[in-house]
Amino acid sequence: MIGREKEIEQLKRLYEKDKAELVAVYGRHRVGKTFLVDEVFKGRITFHHSGLSPVEMAEHAGVRPLKQQLQAFYYSLLYHGMQRTHCPKDWLEAFYMLEVFLRDRDDGSRQLVFLDELPWMDTKKSGFMTGFESFWNGWACHRHNIMVIVCGSATSWIQDKLINNHGGLYNRVTYQMKLEPFSLNECDAFLKDCGIEMSQYDVAQSYMIVGGVPYYLGYFSRGKSLPQIVDDLFFNRNAHLASEYDRLFSSVFSEPAIMKKIVEFLSRRSAGYSRKEIIRNTSAKDGGPLSEKLSALIASDFIIKYVPFGKSEEYYKLTDPFCLFYLRFVKDKGSLSEQFWQQNSSSPAILSWRGYSFENLCFNHIRQIKRTLGILGVSTKESAWNKHDGEDEGTQIDLIIERKDNVVNMCEIKFYGNEFTVDKQYDLVLRNRVSALSKLIGPKCTIQNTLISTFGVKANQYAWTFDNVITLRDLFMPL
Asked: What percent of the chain has pLDDT over 70?
């Protein structure tokens, strides 16, 4: 298993404890939650059940979702050795059957119940939460040898219905674990483990296309170049990820259409948009429902919320690499060549995309940037800055790191195939940006010009303009 060392250690520690544990494991769809639990507890799971995907259930018109979910739960009980009886009529009975099943097999050793994709089981008006609450509060929490692990890609459901529950399950989750996508270092290790050798330059580009999602990286093929792999994933006939975008939203959100509309609007501008702009340009209505949708997108690692430098209004920025790539090059593009990426990888459109995507990669690796700067222990706030009015019209700073130690890192982010060269004209641009930024920060703060680039800066008379230079090698270092 690649990475996840802290998560593995924590799960094992919880398993060894002599008390009832209710553990919630959540994170972006396809990030490897099920794989983690299966690998850590191979051969030690007493009962395992996975909810039925709403995408699959939608293909069976006329069949009630509740009936399908209950029938699947019953079949899981039979698979694990329960004697054949009857399909439960509701979730109260289903969880009572699980309780009886566990009691009959209780020899005093640890009993592990793994309920995967728990949010999928909670269909409309199903009474699922009543049944689960009765099972945990009425029986399982009193058994010192019971450990229940619940997983879900619908992160907002896990947070709202379990972790932040204000009803019968209030404060009942004993441990919560959010599984993050892989970092660049972990992507590199994963691909090497699959026998795929890539330069850091290409691993970075692969991250800019599919993010640190192990499921997507698992489709990469040995003996192929990155452009060939991208065509296999998105542009070839029967491409592996051709339908993933729609399935992704239908699997995670109860209202996938409006969630996609918000994401597609946010994809138009790298700096993101304010809440007012989202309301004005989508059919989303202001108030609690919109807040819930934005929170769900944040919780599922699709977007981030931040305050742009010099502003007080919160902005929402799309950061999921897979969505950004799919919306830029695949969605609604009609019939493209099956070798589209191989034929166009040097086109101006793709070169421009690499620049914006590398900025996004850097936002997703702030900790690595801070470590290289030696400020991991310093409290910071990260943002971008775009100024389009007044005398500083057109001023743009890719990344600003405001530090509590009275330093502001003004970061230029450049994705180049070689060392980045600073000439006299660009040196003047940087000086103007420092001048514009200095008007907005306090007099006690110092601005440090920082370059984040693939291979650093070419040595010449203007290279000294950067106080710090961060390269791909730094971004790939493990934390």
From this structure: 97
